[in-house]
Specification:
Blueprint lengths: L1 E3 L3 H12 L6 E4 L6 E2 L2 E5 L10 E4 L4 H10 L3 E2 L2 E2 L4 E2 L4 E2 L4 E2 L4 E2 L4 E2 L4 E2 L4 E2 L4 E2 L4 E2 L4 E2 L4 E2 L4 E2 L4 E2 L4 E2 L4 E2 L4 E2 L7 E4 L4 E5 L4
InterPro entries: AcTrfase_PglD-like, Hexapep, Hexapep_transf_CS, PglD_N, Trans_hexapeptide_repeat, Trimer_LpxA-like_sf
Pfam family, one: PglD_N
Keywords: Acyltransferase, Repeat, Transferase
């Protein structure tokens, strides 16, 4: 097992994997700042060759960078779920997705590849999250919410039932979303209001 990205986010994933008795051989990083993280060797990406049988989690919180790295690799991606998380048996989780401590994902929700459901976040029944979505700590999605690729729901934000959020949207910390949001919107406040738009990458 390998991680890609020696960051604070990787420390939490390392904890999850240790709890599951999964041995992490190394953490890869393009520009290593230290030789070890949580006691695991940090290796410059160019110094190692991964074959198609290698197993890896992209341990980068930034959605754009996580997508770029994931699409550049030909490996098997691991889905990591903390033991304190509550994940319905009817939920579908994509490859490389990470579910952090005390998160809840309820019945018949579907998450794409390389999503992050962070600590204490709630994804209620029948939600659909596309690839590379990040639900930040203590954010909550009510039932039937759909979230487009690469969108970040900020810490403590709330989204009422049935809302459709476009791709690469940024929802600010503590925002309350009561209306559908278009692609690339940057939204803050209660109720949420669009203040500008992200540049398409």
């Amino acid at each position: 097992m390998y991680l890609y990205g020696a960051s604070g986010h990787s420390k939490v994933i390392i904890d999850i994997l240790k709890q599951q008795h999964v041995v992490v051989e190394a953490v890869l990083d393009d520009t290593p700042k230290s030789d070890f993280i949580c006691g695991i060797p940090v290796v410059k990406t160019s110094d190692i060759i991964l074959d198609a049988e290698a197993v890896l989690v992209v341990s980068i919180g930034n959605n754009t960078f996580r997508k770029r790295i994931a699409e550049s690799l030909n490996v098997r991606f691991y889905t990591a779920i903390h033991s304190s998380a509550v994940v319905s048996p009817s939920t579908i989780l994509g490859m490389g997705t990470v579910v952090m401590p005390n998160a809840v994902i309820n019945a018949f929700s579907t998450l794409g590849n390389h999503c992050i459901v962070n600590s204490g976040a709630i994804v209620e029944h029948d939600c659909v999250l596309e690839n590379y979505v990040h639900i930040s700590p203590n954010a909550a999605l009510a039932g039937g919410v759909s979230v487009g690729e690469g969108t970040q729901i900020g810490i403590g934000a709330s989204v009422i039932q049935g809302i459709k959020i476009g791709k690469w949207v940024t929802v600010g910390a503590g925002a309350v979303i009561i209306e559908d949001l278009p692609d690339y919107a940057i939204v803050v406040g209660n109720p949420g209001r669009i203040i500008k738009f992200n540049e398409p990458s």
